[in-house]
Each structure stands twice: as structure tokens, then as C-alpha cells.
Amino acid sequence: MSLVETCVSIAIISVVTLFAVPSLLQSRDDYVVQSAANDVASKLHSARIRAISRNIDCRLRVISSVSYAIECMDPVWMVTETIALPKGMTIVQNAKPEFHRLGTVAPTATITVTNPKGHQKKVIINNGGRIRIE
Asked: Quick one: how many helices (H) and strands (E) in the chain?
């Protein structure tokens, strides 16, 4: 291979890399926020199952913008688990969803997980106990 062919090959690889890297970084950011939302939904499912199986009330409470806790009433609210979000992620909620003995929820709630670039996923809990991510 000649020097010209080598330079052309390097130029082509550089152009492809130039276009691929931003897309890969965006995909990583989307993956991290989706993963954090999946973790929140998983903890909510766990709290619902705990409420049904132990015949007690359980809830998710946001402690700070970067952590939340699962609490169960036994006979007072006791923290059963504290979870910290991945670096750079924040969490807010509009209510404290409480799972009751039958698996129902009151009040309904939306929990929003956001990354530093402003991309967010919402974990929505309806009054029947259904949990979904948007």
C-alpha cells in the first residue's frame, strides 16, 4: 500500500468515527436513564409484592434528588432499602405511592428520572398498582 492509499484510509476512518461517536454517546445516555427508570420500576414491583405478601403497606419515598427509599409500615414507617441513583441522575416524584395489602395504590404517582442533559423517563403508578415507564 502506498502512502496516498494509507492517508485516504485514515481519512475515511476519521470521518466515520466523527459521525459515529456522538451517536454512541447519545445511546449511552439514553441507556443510563432507561436503566435507572427500570431500577425504580423494579423496586416498586418489589414493594408491591412485599405489601401483598406481608399484609402491610409499603411505599417509595424520594429522600433527596439522587436517592430514594422503600419503606414499609410495621407498625410505623421503617426503611427497608435505600437506593442511590447512578452519578449525574436525579429523581423527583409528585406523590408518595403507597401499596396496600391488596396491591392497590393510593395516591397514584409519577416518578421522573432525569440525566444531566435533560433526557428523562417517567415511571407511572396507577391506582390498580400497574407500573409503567414512558
From this structure: 1, 9
